[in-house]
Design a protein that fits this description.
Keywords: Leucine-rich repeat, Repeat. This is Leucine-rich repeat domain-containing protein. The protein is mainly β. The chain has 2 domains: 89 residues, Ribonuclease Inhibitor (Leucine-rich repeat, LRR (right-handed beta-alpha superhelix), Alpha-Beta Horseshoe), CATH 3.80.10; 77 residues, Ribonuclease Inhibitor (Leucine-rich repeat, LRR (right-handed beta-alpha superhelix), Alpha-Beta Horseshoe). Strand 7, helix 1 and strand 8 form a beta-alpha-beta unit.
């Protein structure tokens, strides 16, 4: 299967999991307003239609897909889990409106620059392991942050690993968090 026909009649659908399918494109998802989980892990999809109508979406997984860019995520205010690891995405849209986001996974990603994360006060897990990210924005306002993964990351000016620990401890004002380097 490489494509789907219209999904317009599936208005009560809560979970759409197309993991490990050969799908390369998606039709409009505008009528799937009850959708809570969208998993496109290990697919051949390179772009997504608008996600603006998916205001109930709690989890979006694009890990190991061929996706190269994301549409705006501003309307996904219920989103609590975002998996973008091992994708071809190089630039993230603003995440400021994702105030319910708990988990942000960018491990093995091509992203080199993170947007501001200041408004993600519910974020408790940030994974940047083996990513191309070269610098971190301030993490001071992430009051819920408990876990930061940086193993194999490309952070500039904060390596070796001991410097990363010192840097993060300073950024987080010595809160007790688990840091993996």
């Amino acid at each position: 299967m490489t494509s789907l026909q219209s999904l317009d009649k599936l208005t009560s659908l809560e979970n759409l999991d197309l993991t490990k399918t050969g799908i390369t494109s998606l039709p409009s998802l505008d009528k799937l307003t009850a959708l809570k989980t969208l998993k496109l892990t290990k697919t051949r999809i390179t772009s997504l239609p608008s996600l603006d109508k998916l205001t109930s979406l709690k989890e979006l997984s694009l890990t190991s897909s061929k996706i190269t860019s994301l549409p705006s995520l501003d309307k996904l205010t219920a989103l609590n889990t975002l998996y973008l690891g091992d994708t071809q995405i190089k630039l993230l849209p603003s995440l400021d409106k994702l105030t319910a986001l708990n988990t942000l996974y960018l491990g093995f990603s091509q992203i080199t620059l993170l947007p501001s994360l200041d408004k993600l006060t519910a974020l408790d897990s940030l994974d940047l392991s083996n990513s191309q990210i070269t610098s971190l924005p301030s993490l001071e306002k992430l009051i819920s942050l408990e876990r930061v993964e940086l193993n194999g990351s490309q952070l500039v000016g904060v390596s070796p690993s001991e410097n990363k620990k010192i840097f993060l401890a300073y950024q987080l004002k010595y809160r007790k968090i688990k840091i993996s380097i």
